[in-house]
Amino acid sequence: MKRLTRKEEEAMKILWKARKGFIKELIDLHPEPKPLYTTFSSVIRGLEEKGYVDHKAYGKNHEYFPVIRKEEYRKIFMKDVVNDYFGSSYKNVVSFFVNEKKLSADDLKKLIQIIEKGGKDG
Description:
By secondary structure, this protein is mostly helical. The chain folds into 2 domains: 61 residues, Winged helix-like DNA-binding domain superfamily/Winged helix DNA-binding domain (Arc Repressor Mutant, subunit A); 47 residues, no CATH class. The protein is 59% helix and 10% strand. The protein contains 6 helices and 2 strands; from the N terminus they run αααββααα. α1 crosses α3.
């Protein structure tokens, strides 16, 4: 699947939250500044062309819904980020967050526990 632009990701976040909706309903859920109807409609149609969204037709109106779950996209997105910015190394990702002071020693201990449990958090 193709990676999404920022506008497409914003639209997908709205669709994931709403689960389905007509363009006007989805725009109402969009944070300010609200996009123009035609602009948002174009973004949604682009998502449909990429295979992220589908619709059910009611005459001339279309109710859109996501085809891909947020968790599926997160895996694609994170894999791309790790490959593109961290040399395909998850260790480099963790080091980055430690160096940026986004992960504490306690956080790392919890991550080690998760790894030792076979990846099950909690």
